[in-house]
Specification:
This protein is mainly α and 160 residues long. 50% of the residues lie in helices and 10% in strands. It folds into two domains: 1-88, no CATH class; 101-159, no CATH class. Strand 3 (71-73) and strand 4 form a beta hairpin. This is ATPase AAA-type core domain-containing protein.
C-alpha cells in the first residue's frame, strides 16, 4: 500500500484522474476496509481529483463510506449509491454487489429464512418481499447445488 501511495503522490495534481487496479491484492482485509479513507486523507489537499478503483474486494466496498463514492457494476450496468452498500457485511457485498454469493452465504440464509417464516405464518408478501424472492431465485443459479442455502431457496420456490 505504501508503494501505491508513493506512486500516486509522485504524479498527482489538482484535477487528476487516478486509476487503481485491484489494490486489495496482498492487503490484509482490515487495510482493504480503510484504503479509500486513507486515500482521501493523504490526498485531501488536491482538488477535483477522481479515483477509479477496480476491485473484487467486499471489504474495500464496505469501507467506502463517503458520499462521493459509488460502486459501478459493469455486469449489471448499475451504479450503487453509498447508502446501498456502506458498512454492510462481506456476504451482503458478495451476493448483492458482486453477484457471487459463495458457499453458505449468511446474508442470503437470513434473507430466505425471513421469507420462509412469513410463509409459515401465512403472512402476505409485500412488494419488497416479492422483489427479494426474485433476487434470491436469480442468485440461486450462481450457487452450488450442495449449498444448504441453495436448497432453502428451492424450498422457497416450491412454497411461494
Amino acid at each position: 500500500m505504501l508503494t501505491m501511495m508513493l506512486g500516486i503522490a509522485g504524479s498527482i495534481q489538482n484535477g487528476s484522474l487516478i486509476c487503481i487496479d485491484e489494490p486489495e491484492i496482498s492487503l490484509h482485509p482490515q487495510w482493504q476496509s480503510s484504503l479509500v479513507k486513507q486515500l482521501q486523507e493523504v490526498f485531501a489537499d488536491y482538488h477535483g481529483c477522481h479515483f477509479i478503483i477496480a476491485t473484487h474486494s467486499p471489504q474495500l466496498v464496505s469501507g467506502l463510506v463517503t458520499d462521493n463514492g459509488y460502486v459501478l457494476s459493469l455486469e449489471e450496468a448499475r451504479l450503487y449509491k453509498p447508502y446501498e452498500y456502506a458498512k454492510r457485511s462481506a456476504d451482503f457485498q458478495l451476493a448483492e454487489i458482486f453477484q457471487s454469493p459463495g458457499q453458505n452465504n449468511e446474508y442470503l440464509l437470513r434473507t430466505v429464512l425471513i421469507l420462509l417464516t412469513k410463509i409459515a405464518k401465512r403472512e402476505n408478501f409485500n412488494e419488497d418481499d416479492r422483489e427479494t424472492a426474485v433476487r434470491l431465485f436469480k442468485l440461486q443459479s450462481k450457487m452450488s447445488d450442495v449449498d444448504p442455502v441453495y436448497h432453502l431457496i428451492s424450498q422457497l420456490g416450491t412454497l411461494y
